[in-house]
Amino acid sequence: MENLIFNLRLIPLMPFLGAAVLMLFGRKWKRDTVLVVAAGAILLSCFVSIDAFFAQLPAEGGLVDTLWTWIAAGDLKVDLAFRMDALSGLLCLIITFIGFLIHVYASGYMEHDPDYARFFAYLNLFCGSMLVLVLGDSLPVMFVGWEGVGLCSYLLIGFWYKENANADAGKKAFITNRIGDFGFLLGMFLIYQYTGTLKFTEVAAAAGAGSPLLTLSWLGAPVAFWACLFLFIGATGKSAQIPLYVWLPDAMAGPTPVSALIHAATMVTAGVYMVARMHAVYLLSPGALAIVAGVGALTALFAAIIGFAQNDFKKVLAYSTVSQLGFMFVGVGTANFGAGVFHLYTHAFFKAGLFLCAGSIMHAMSGSGDITIMGGLRKKTPITHAVFLVCWLAICGVPIFSGFFSKDAIVAGAFATDVYGPGLEWVGKAVGVALLLAALGTAFYMSRLYFLVFSGSETRASEEIQHHIHESPGAMTGPLVVLAIGAGLGGLIGIPGGLFGHPEWNLLAHRLESVLGPELDVPKATEGAFMAVSTVIALAGIGLAYVFYGGGYREPAKKFAAAAPKFVQLVRDKFRVDELYAFLFIRPIRFISKAIYRVIDRAIIDGTVNAVGMVTGAVGSIVRRFQSGDGQGYMAWFAIGAAALVFFATRPGLIKNDLRVTTTGLSVEVDARHGGRASQQPVEYEFDFDSDGKPEITGTSSLAHHTYARPGSYKLTITAHNLTWGTTNVEHERIEVQ
Amino acid sequence: MNVDAPMNASGAEQVVFWLLAAMTVFFAVFTVTRKNPVTAVMSLVGTFFSLAGIYATLSAHFLAILQVLVYAGAIMVLFIFVVMILNREEVSPVPLRFVSGFAVLAAIYLLVKFVHVADAGVPPMAPSVPETFGTVGNIGDLLFRDFLFPFEAISLLLLVAIVGGVVVSRTHQKEVDATVAAAARKEAHDRQLADYPAHDALEGGEGDEGHDAHAHGGGH
Amino acid sequence: MPTHYYLVLSFVLFLIGTGGVLMRRNALIVLMGIELQLNGGNLAMLAFSRALGDEKGHVFAFLIIALAAAEAAVGLAILVGLFRGRQTVNLDEATLMKR
């Protein structure tokens, strides 16, 4: 720690402080002040991150900053601790740097929004949560950040909550994420149950050969398989993979900077980060890795196909994000963790750039994101166009641009991996082929987007909108240019140097090796071959898109749409997955809820409450007649009450429970003495042992003795007179004598 | 009643007691049953005089005098005055109420119980009391020595009663004037609005409603 | 005379007063009923005083008479006020406590 100027804890603390200050006081502040506080917090955090990142470079195993023991219950001890190593450091740099750029961008984008301070407070809160997520030293701390970013995502998607659709999108994201979080929790519990620890380093240490996680459990699979599967369910929620990806396209309802920061660059990569972080456990279970890779590949292909037919600028990018996240999962799922993280890094730059371009374009198009009415914007928004061009080439995988290196590393790794044991060797090849198809699709739909928006000579929008088209202000274009540089050149830190005999050229890989274990060994031939194949595919996708959409909608595009209208419609409707989920899950839940509502809520709870109310009302309607306002009536009741009081208070309290009867043969002993008020007043007792109306014993003594002539069952009648008040009480008792 | 209780009272004393007791009850019943308030007040005076006599048989000479002076004198004059101011005869003096019937039954029950208790458990009469028992001197001595504080307190109460009586019964002429003026203003306002039919209907309706409510309250 | 004769008489007086208070509509008669109740109480005081040979009861009776005077003064003043406001002393019409 002594290398550090600042503590690690400052990294998440800064944005949290910023958020707290902005929430408390921001509303009254000027916009510039708000921006300085918000962006300043991130910038400081960024500086500390850079400092810490370089401080940890020589430190094996990273730096740890322990604040305090957070949970101590029995054997469970969880420290609130942060860890900075190559992996979390890289993530920190991405988050704080891109986060800062997006803050600056948002100052221009949200310029006219009345809730300026609230927006930046949420953004800061999000950055803080995300930093806790990546810096967390144990699963629970990570989970805190995990939930925190989920919350912020909800808050920011529904930022313009006055429109129902936005609020619904927020809820959808939150609920979908909750399903995943449940899986995350289950995975966490499983790991704790078998290893007794939740700390990443200790879990990794416990995941060697003969690990307790290899215990066979349900369905004959090792515990590690189930733990990884549950954690991966959490990852599918957060990182928008099949089957929980549905929230991400809807999340585009939020402001565009949010889409860029949360739903492209940072939060959605949390799942990838988590799998990379837990790589030791995943390596125990090839089956789980195969599922991760399979789901990733399927998502990459599926989302890419949906991307073909979307007409909303941000929706295309959203499906593109889902698809690219699939690439990352294939990376980590093929045990090529470094490549997955590398793609995470490059994607953060070019996707943030693409989203911010989308924001800039929508800004120019009077808020509309419909690409069918765009076109020819190359000249009208030159800076945005240039940035988009770079990012587009990056995502398509054109050589030199960042996406090329990371995508190639993943695809080559998929074909080269040997992590799946016997029987599952085909998985690597299969996902590799799927990824190549997805890469072709990516090149195609991204090019479609580019051509429809920027190429051509005329804009298809109305005169009104065309008139207002303008380049965005400097606060927006500045971050765009920086991101474009990152998207263009950022891939150079991960050059596959091994291909040229210089492994040290790859600055990233051997740094990550300290955390993620030895890099996947990809043969030179494979590496080189797939570089060529990737390039060909990227250019093929671009070329195909040019044929269809170069300079606007061309004949082939129209012909295709006319030839298979149903298929196009199906793709445009996102394969109706939302409707499928509605049918499979939402309708049954609605039905059950309604049934419960009718039976439990309406009948039982409401019934009880209403019954109480009705009884009260009925009693009240009777009792209210007493409230006549008539003083004489009140006094009459008072007199009646006095009489009743005298009547009840002066009765001799011959309490049956106290009555003691002892039978010996034919003789009976009775004690009618009782406690209470009447014992202080003279009482005369009459004991009629056979209830014939003629009392056998009369006197002031409560004790009586009688001998029956014959055995049998008799009724004893005791009459007590209170001599002072002249009141009488009669009690009966059955007596059996033999 | 316990007939066998020892009677250590002379025959004359008994005759006086029964006579006075009968008069007291008679006048008391007369008081609460007469329609005419003047008759009622006069019966009440009779009750008080008879009671004064009974007080005398209890050797409470000072209280007997006080009873005549304060009750039969001062308080009764007050009543008479008020009767003269109001002087209203009731149409049906005794309203029959469901609750009242029960209350009467309760009262009878309480009377029975009371007789029983009084018969069974009260201290007997002291055989004799000193000559000076109940004289002005003795009572005054007690009042100004042992009961000085209650005495002063009751004087304060009387003062409050005097002030209260004046405040409550005085004419609130200013308020009356204000009420009359407000009524006049409203009438003028209504008349003004009569030129506008829509307003007239609205205001008139409200006015009627208010009037009805008032009449209803009055007749209740 | 035995004490309880006086006590029963005082209770009868009290009940007659109560009857007047409860049953009459005329507020004046109600006030008179209250006076009867107070006198019933007074008689009990004096009876016990004589039975126990203790003159303290006389003092209380004295205080009760003073109280009765005050009560009559205020009560009658209220009646006059009521009459002025409503032109009636019928208690059935004086149900302000209901509102």
Structure description:
- The complex is a heterotrimer of chains A (738), B (220) and C (99).
- Chain A is of the alpha+beta class.
- In chain A, 63% of the residues lie in helices and 9% in strands.
- The radius of gyration of chain A is 39 Å and the shape is elongated.
- Chain B is built from eight helices and no strands.
- The radius of gyration of chain B is 28 Å and the shape is elongated.
- The N terminus and C terminus of chain B are likely disordered.
- In chain C, α1 runs antiparallel to α2.
- At the A-C interface, α27 of A face α1 of C.
Secondary structure elements and their pairing?
The complex is a heterotrimer of chains A (about 750), B (about 220) and C (about 100).
Chain A lengths: L9 H16 L5 H26 L6 E11 L2 E9 L1 H24 L6 H20 L3 H19 L6 H32 L4 H6 L17 H16 L8 H4 L5 H10 L4 H8 L1 H6 L1 H23 L4 H21 L3 H28 L12 H4 L1 H15 L5 H15 L9 H29 L8 H6 L5 H16 L17 H10 L7 H26 L5 H9 L1 H8 L4 H47 L7 H19 L10 E5 L2 E5 L11 E6 L8 E3 L3 E5 L4 E11 L4 E11 L1
Antiparallel strand pairs in A: 1-2, 3-4, 4-7, 5-6, 5-8, 8-9
Helix pairs in contact in A: 1-2, 1-4, 2-3, 2-4, 3-4, 3-10, 3-15, 3-21, 4-5, 5-6, 5-10, 6-8, 8-11, 8-13, 10-15, 13-14, 13-19, 14-15, 14-18, 14-19, 15-17, 15-18, 15-21, 15-22, 17-19, 17-21, 18-19, 18-23, 19-23
Chain B lengths: L10 H23 L3 H21 L3 H26 L11 H24 L14 H10 L2 H22 L3 H21 L3 H23 L1
Chain C lengths: L2 H21 L3 H26 L3 H31 L13
Helix pairs in contact in C: 1-2, 2-3
Keywords:
heterotrimer, A: alpha+beta, 27 helices, 9 strands, 63% helix, B: 220 residues, mainly alpha, 8 helices, 0% strand, elongated, disordered N terminus
